[in-house]
Amino acid sequence: MATRRLTVALPEELVEALGVVAAEDGVPVSRLVADATERGLRRRLGQHLLVEWQAEHGAFTPDELAAARAEMVAADRLLTPST
């Protein structure tokens, strides 16, 4: 993937936190920022798709929402390393 240099302004505390996490993970700060940006864009797209689906098919029922939440919790458990 091609990269492009971009200048952004971030709060000092956020920059410091990014530096700490990048050092802990052994990755460049730019990788953390790119990953977070990609997740945010994917989340936004997902939200847009949900709104479109509900506009066409109606709102989710409480049972459907509960089932979705349960699946997300189960997926989080699979992806989160145990300590």
From TrEMBL:
Residues 4-44 form the CopG-like ribbon-helix-helix domain. It comes from the Bacteria. It holds the Pfam family RHH_5. This is CopG-like ribbon-helix-helix domain-containing protein. The lineage of its organism: Bacteria, Bacillati, Actinomycetota, Actinomycetes, Micromonosporales.
